[in-house]
Amino acid sequence: MLVLPHSLSLITTHHCTAACDHCCFSCSPKITTRIPKEKITSLIEEAQKIPTMKLICFTGGECFTLGNELDEHISHATRLGFVTRCITNGYWAFSLEHARRRIKKARESGLKEINFSTGTFHQKHVPIERILNGTLAAAEAGIFVVINMEICDQSDEYINDIILKNEKLIELHNSKKIIIQRTVWIEADGNTSLSHPENRSRFNPKNKSSCRTVLNVLSVTPTQDLIACCGLHLEKIDELHLGSLKNNSIMDVLKNTKDDLLKIWIHLDGVEEVYLQAQKEDPSISLPYSSTHPCETCLSLYKNKEAFHAIQKVVKKHEKEIMERYMNKMTLQIFDRNVVN
């Protein structure tokens, strides 16, 4: 499989201190599935054999439930020359002092970036004040922070304003030490009905884009499957699964996987454009205009039998063009080693 991935996302565990409604991986405190410690170590070492690989992301579930083991993995990845990132709900930041102590260990291990997930659905399990504590502690320590705040019609903006209108965070944001961004909260296997305004549709021309993760980011699930992206619905789309790593290396799986024109096209033009081409092939296909996230559109494309069948026909017609464009992009990446978006 011809890929030049820049990041490896390790979904270390499905265990989480929270059980958020519509969690993309349905994580909870009851689930204990995880990548074994020694496997995480070997995966980091395997990633070093991929010349374009720059970043190791530790996520979950909740990666901080690994405790000191997480710091060991961060340190190992740092020694091998990787930039390291953790994605967390911030449960551990009980107070500013607690947060400082925990961040100190992570920083000494080499952590470069931390992403906090929060919002209406998260704060039912993790008070949003802990995001404040964690962010302030990380910024003090020189760790770059990204705060991802859920947004949907059901969002409680009064709660979100604790972050959005905090003077210290605004100052840090303006000085570019942190980023605060709104990310759409999409339906998974939750109970609450979610909705979004029409202007948030991914089929709105201003919202369409190429897919930044497929073939750029490789993920490993807690069941040790290698995935071609880090998308929110990656565990629901069989075609994104490249193979098991239980008895194989990342390189082994990549070498034994054929190039997939559909993934390549999504990588180049984005799944919405691909879906539109499927509709041109078969006008009876209905587009998922309610989709507000590329992962929603992607899940729909792969699960809609008519659309999937139609796009296979289109892909064959444009095989040469798609591969030429992909090879041109790959060539540019080879000459530009700074491939992390």
UniProtKB/TrEMBL annotation:
<dbReference type="GO" id="GO:0003824">
    <property type="term" value="F:catalytic activity"/>
</dbReference>
<dbReference type="GO" id="GO:0051536">
    <property type="term" value="F:iron-sulfur cluster binding"/>
</dbReference>
<keyword id="KW-0949">S-adenosyl-L-methionine</keyword>
<protein>
    <recommendedName>
        <fullName>Radical SAM core domain-containing protein</fullName>
    </recommendedName>
</protein>
<dbReference type="GO" id="GO:0046872">
    <property type="term" value="F:metal ion binding"/>
</dbReference>
<dbReference type="Pfam" id="PF04055">
    <property type="entry name" value="Radical_SAM"/>
</dbReference>
<dbReference type="InterPro" id="IPR013785">
    <property type="entry name" value="Aldolase_TIM"/>
</dbReference>
<dbReference type="InterPro" id="IPR007197">
    <property type="entry name" value="rSAM"/>
</dbReference>
<dbReference type="InterPro" id="IPR058240">
    <property type="entry name" value="rSAM_sf"/>
</dbReference>
<keyword id="KW-0411">Iron-sulfur</keyword>
<feature type="domain" description="Radical SAM core">
    <location>
        <begin position="11"/>
        <end position="161"/>
    </location>
</feature>
<dbReference type="InterPro" id="IPR050377">
    <property type="entry name" value="Radical_SAM_PqqE_MftC-like"/>
</dbReference>
<keyword id="KW-0479">Metal-binding</keyword>
<keyword id="KW-0408">Iron</keyword>
